[in-house]
Design brief:
about 150 residues, mainly alpha
């Protein structure tokens, strides 16, 4: 019995490490969808300070509304659709300056490298906002050929 535990634990650890490495190497989707790829990142890591709660909101910037996400394409705007290099959001998530870094270093939830790449790719693709999926009309998927 003890032999199984001592052999099984390293094998489980090795399996979990392999799964973690595989997940880290997963390529970004070709088309970034706001509801599927971006909203979960913003909701988990950004809405605490830039979401619907006016008492917790910082800098009067909201990422849960289309008006604040689809800003006019002016350099220095939080999001400049089609131009991640001119988007303040990208500058803030990539900086190493502790005063400008977003989310701030003292926050528990930090953006992963994949999260940052996903946000950059979304902005590069035009930063298209989608209303919450519950407010979208249902569509019938195309039936596969059998």
């Amino acid at each position: 019995m003890n032999w199984r535990i001592s052999v099984g634990a390293p094998l489980l650890t090795l399996h979990l490490l392999c799964v973690g490495v595989h997940a880290a190497e997963e390529p970004l989707p070709e088309t970034i969808q706001f509801n599927r790829h971006v909203r979960p990142i913003l909701s988990d890591k950004c809405y605490a300070c830039h979401g619907p709660d006016d008492k917790a909101r910082k800098a009067d910037l909201r990422f849960d509304l289309p008006l604040d996400i689809s800003t006019a394409p002016v350099a220095g705007s939080a999001i400049v659709p089609g131009n991640p290099d001119a988007s303040e959001l990208v500058r803030r998530i990539l900086t190493t300056d502790a005063e400008d870094q977003m989310p701030p270093a003292d926050q528990k939830k930090q953006l992963s490298t994949r999260d940052k790449a996903m946000l950059q790719a979304w902005i590069a693709q035009g930063a298209e906002y989608e209303p919450h999926w519950a407010y979208l009309p249902p569509t019938n998927p195309e039936a596969p050929d059998v």
